[in-house]
Amino acid sequence: MEDMLNVAMPFLIGLFLIGLGGFFLWNERRMKQICTSQVSGVVADEGHYVRYKNGKRKEGYKPTFSYSVEGVEYTKQKDSYSSTRKVSTGQSVTVFYDPAKPNRFYVLELGSVKGSIIVWIPCALGVLFILVGFIIRHFAD
């Protein structure tokens, strides 16, 4: 039983990681399907931040966008999944929002997660774990 668990565990971890990367791609696609209305918005703050974790400096961007739908002003922050600045404070942007829930939105200028490490690192690690599972299975027989 323990041998079976040792063989199955890398496969399960690999499938989980690939699923995680797939979830980010699916979520982006879902947002593009439900956010069908568009309006002009502005970058209220580019959201530059610096964090220190375990003595290492990490920089990133989490911009804040302002836009108005039917007279209601929305100011929302959005992860950019990038360590490079894609927008600047005061820049005009295209905001796509969900007509049923205008606070749900995405911004074209932030780009896609398709080329982002938030998708490819989990998928690559997932494939690596599955390969390790195959190697363990081969030598376990």
Give a written overview of the molecule.
The protein is α+β, with helices and mostly antiparallel strands. Helices cover 40% and strands 30% of the residues. The protein has helices at residues 2-34, 117-140, and strands at residues 37-45, 48-53, 56-61, 64-69, 72-77, 92-97, 105-107. The strands form 2 sheets. It has a 5-stranded antiparallel beta sheet. The radius of gyration is 20 Å and the shape is elongated. The mean pLDDT is 82.
Features:
single chain; 141 residues; alpha+beta; five-stranded antiparallel beta sheet; two-stranded antiparallel sheet; 2 helices; 40% helix
- What is the structural class? alpha+beta
Number of domains: 1
The Rg value, from CA coordinates, equals 20 Å
Shape annotation: elongated
Q: Say what oligomer this is.
A: single chain
How many helices? The count is 2
User: How is the biggest beta sheet arranged?
Assistant: 5 strands, antiparallel
Spell the H/E element sequence: HEEEEEEEH
Low-confidence stretches: none
Strand percentage lies at 25-35%
How are the SSEs placed, and which strands pair?
Layout: H1 2-34, E1 37-45, E2 48-53, E3 56-61, E4 64-69, E5 72-77, E6 92-97, E7 105-107, H2 117-140
Antiparallel strand pairs: 1-4, 1-6, 2-3, 4-5, 6-7
Helix pairs in contact: 1-2
Offer a concise description of the structure.
The protein is of the alpha+beta class and 141 residues long.
